Amino acid sequence: QVQLVESGGGLVQPGGSLRLSCAASGIILRTATMGWFRQAPGKDREWLTTITDGGTIDSLDSVKDRFTISRDFAKNSVYLQMNSLKPEDTAVYYCKEFSRGIWGQGTLVTVSS
Q1: Which of 2, 24, 32, 107 shows a CA-CA span of 20 to 30 A to 99?
Q2: How far is Cα of residue 4 from the mean position of the Cα atoms in its chain?
Q3: What is the pLDDT of residue 68?
Q4: Do residues 58 and 110 touch, judged by C-beta distance below 8 A?
Q5: How many CB atoms sit inside 10 A of residue 33's CB?
Q6: What is the 3-state secondary structure (H, E, C) of the chain?
Q7: What are the pLDDT digits (tens) for 55-104?
Q8: Backbone torsions φ then ψ of 22, nearest 5 degrees
């Protein structure tokens, strides 16, 4: 079964950090292009960052200095390290496998004091 399962969301204070995880099953990360998106309340889903099968990373300019994508082939997982979080980062965060258009169920990140 092909599946992506995100975890690691939660409530964090402004300026804090979180690391989101995306565990893949039925997908071989070495041959997959993976990405992270987010959707804030009342807004469209927004692309954040991508890592290709070859390891090339591309990121949205507004988050590239704070958010970092990485992957662990042994754990078949992709991660999103988020630092210096702001209230406007509050959203549901999703991972995606691009070739088949597979999405995870999302994990909620709330940045609030």
Answers
A1: 107
A2: 11
A3: 98
A4: no
A5: 15
A6: CCEEEEECCEEECCCCCEEEEEEEECCCHHHCCEEEEEECCCCCCEEEEEECCCCCEEECCCCCCCEEEEEECCCCEEEEEECCCCHHHCEEEEEEECCCCEECCCEEEEECC
A7: 999 999 999 999 999 999 999 999 999 999 999 999 999 999 999 999 99
A8: -135, 105
Question: Which residues, 6+ apart, have CB-to-CB distance to 102 below 8 Å?
Answer: 2, 3, 4, 27, 96
Distances in whole angstroms, Cα of residue 102 to Cα of each of 24, 30, 36, 46: 10, 16, 12, 16
Q: What angle do CA 75, 78, 83 make, to 5 degrees?
A: 125
Rounded Cα distance, 26 and 62, in Å: 32
Q: How far apart are CA 1 and CA 12, in angstroms?
A: 33
Token pair listed for 27: 């997908």
